[in-house]
Design a protein that fits this description.
This protein is an alpha/beta fold and 157 residues long. The chain is 19% helix and 32% strand. α1 packs parallel to α2. The chain is globular. The C terminus is likely disordered.
Amino acid sequence: MSGLSFQARHGMGRRIVGEALVAHDGFSARYDLNRLQGVFSRPAHKLVGQSYVDKVLVLDTAKGGVATAWMLHEMRSRHMAPAAIVFNTVNTILAQGAALGDVSMLAGFDVDITAQIPHGAIVEIDPETRTIRVLDSSEQSARGPAATDAQRVHGPR
């Protein structure tokens, strides 16, 4: 699966390389996260209990309202933010929040991106070219959703 590349319609931010946290689920900084502990906390979320800090979140859609904008900014100020967010669909409020929080983002694919990127894979997000590329999926995806931070890599801050 390494070497797969997907083109988004929208991208912003800086180039990021990191571990992908993947789920066909939504994202709300307000309702899905424990922003003090750095984990998904909503019991019904498919990533509950997993750390989102410095990860590349690959999710279905953005949820929620204006609180996400200041929450992503606040999370970044405490070094508790995701490195990047990748969505099948995004709303303007989340796009604004990602910009304010300096969180790289891609959105809008011709395929369900949550079905294409292996959970735990090391991916490269390049907003300039609007691409996500799987760099390494062998060891991480074999370990599945319990992958740890040990092999996390991220771009410069």
